[in-house]
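Justification of resources, computational component.

The compute hours requested in this renewal are based largely on the per-chain cost of generating structure records like the one below. Each record pairs the submitted sequence with a full structure-token output. That output is archived, and it is also reused by downstream analysis tasks.
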Amino acid sequence: MNYAIIGFGAIGQALARAFARHNIEVAVASRRSPEALLPQARAIGPTVVPKTLQEALKADVIILAVLYEGHPEIAKVLPNWEGKTIIDAMNSNAPVEDLDGLPSTAFAARAFPGAKVVKGFNHLLAATLTTDPKVAGGHRVVFLSGDNEAATAQVAELARRLGFAPVNLGKLEEGGTLVQARGRVWGPLIFQDLIRKEA
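The structure output for this chain reads:
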């Protein structure tokens, strides 16, 4: 299983730190060239590998950490996304009517035919996400939701490997709405920094 983070801003770098902390290799890509990303990647750790967007999208699991408006351009890079698991770490401020009344993740999933799309890692601020999730005798919670149970379980296992405590909210149109922004209204679990205590 190999991993990529698309977008290397605050959220992308915070997630890259989580991979580096556990010595898990991850490709990173953005609109900038791999050479331009190299100084930041090296500062995070040797397992963070800058690549071109085309190279990074060869990964099995792809985390979208770009501005929501940027996802259609990424979607055009591959004609088919069969076999890929996409983790949507984006948040949208688009009006509900612009998303056909759907949660933003369900709307974005239309652009990635064949992919299994899971919402995750979007509810925490970058400053929180970048810190070690093992805190106060427990692990920081990340909320997940998706319509494919196997893909959600796969992302939950990755979250555990990265030191987080995954909480599955269910399908996107059900519990997943708790971490979706609808228009200018944030879901009630967005920005909630929760810790699951160890038994």
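The chain has seven helices and ten strands. Strands lie at 3-6, 26-29, 48-50, 61-64, 85-88, 116-120, 134-135, 138-146, 165-168, 195-197.
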